[in-house]
Amino acid sequence: MQSSELQRITNWLIDGARSSGTPAEMIADVCEHLVDAGLPLWRFGIFIRTLHPEIFGRNFIWRQGEEVEVGTVDFEILDTPEFAASPLRIVFEQGIEVRGRIGDPDNKRFPILDDLRAEGATDYIAVPMPFLDGSVHATSWVTRHPGGFTDDHIAAIRSIVTPLARVSEIISLRRTAEMLLDTYVGNRAGARILGGQIRRGHNDTMQAAIWLSDLRGFTALSDRLPAETVVEILNHYFDCQVTAIRGHGGEVLKFMGDGLLAVFPIDEYVGDAAHVCTRVLEAARESRASVEALAFPVGEAVERFRFGVALHVGNILYGNIGGGNRLDFTCIGPAVNLAARLEKITGRLGRTVVASEGFANVCRHDWRELGEFPIAGFSKAQRVYGLGEETPVVMA
Questions:
Q1: In the list 11, 144, 250, 266, which could disulfide-bond 245, CB 3.0-4.6 Å?
Q2: pTM for this predicted structure
Q3: What is the pLDDT of residue 197?
Q4: Domains along the chain?
C-alpha cells in the first residue's frame, strides 16, 4: 500500500473529515480513498452502539460500487441466534480482533462467512474500535482479493481504525445528544437546546394547538395495584397517545404522572391553523380508539381504561424555565392554563374529547355545545364543545 496516501487519509480523519457532509458520505470517502491507496477492500461495516432506550446501535455498510446502507438494530438482536454466532459479538464482549479466512474449516462457527464466500469473498476481519469513554464498537473488513488480506493490508486497517474511531466518536456523541434530547424533551426543544438556547429566560412566543390529557381513575388504580404494574400500564397507555401525536405533527413536551402535555405548532405565516387542528382531532380520535382497545391482564382480571383530553389553540411562551442550574424546556401561558382546566371538565361530563370554543371555531367538525362553565382563574365563563359522535359515560 502507498504509505503517503494512507497518511493523507489519517490526517484527513484527524481533521474531522470536513469534506464529507454526512456520516454515510464520510464512510464512503474513507473506503474509496483506501481502495485508491491499494487496499483491496470490497465490503466494510462500522457498528456503533448507542445510548438510546430502544436502539442498541447503528450500522453503516459500504460495498464497492454501491451506496452506503444505514440501519439501526434494537436490543432484541442480543437474544437472536444470529448475534450469538456473529464475530461482532466477540468484538463487543471481549474487545479483540476476529479473523475469518473464507473457506477455513476452523471458521465454521461463523455462518456469515459462508454467506460472504457465496458472494466471492476471500477474507474477513472484525476489528474493535474503542472510544475514549471505554466503550467498544466494531468495524468489519472484507476482501475478494485472491489469498485474502496480506500482513501489510492488516497493518493498514489497524492504523486507520484509531483516527476513524476519533471522528466516529465525535459524530456519535453529537447524535447521542440529539437522540437523548429528542427522547426527554422533544425534537423541537432538543434542536433549540443544541442550537444554544440554554439560558434561563430564553423563550419564544408560539401559536399552537394544545393537548392536555390524563387517565381516568388513576389514583384508585395506583392504590390497588403494585407500583411496577402501574408503571407498565402507564407505558402502554402513553404509547396509545404518543404514536398518534407524533404521527400527526405534534410534540410531547411533558409527562406528569398520568398526564400528558403536547403541542402542535402552527405556522402563522402559512395560515395552517385549520389544517393543524384537524390533525390534532384525528390524533385524539386515534388515541381514543387505542385506549379503548387497551386490555391489561392483572391476575385473573383484565383492566380497561378511559382517558380525557382537552384541546385548545392559542399563543404560548415556549422556552427555559427553572431555578438555579435545573431548567425545564416547556410551555406556559393562559392558553395552557385553560387547557388544563378544560381537561378536568372532561371527567365531569363523561367525555373523552372536549374542545375550547377557539379550537372548535378553527377545526370545523360535528361539535356539540356542552354549555358554559366558570373556569378558575378566568374572568369569563368558557363555552365548551364535545364531539357529536361521543356518548357521555360518567364513571362511578
A1: 250
A2: 0.66
A3: 58
A4: 3-185 (3.30.450.40), 196-387 (3.30.70.1230)
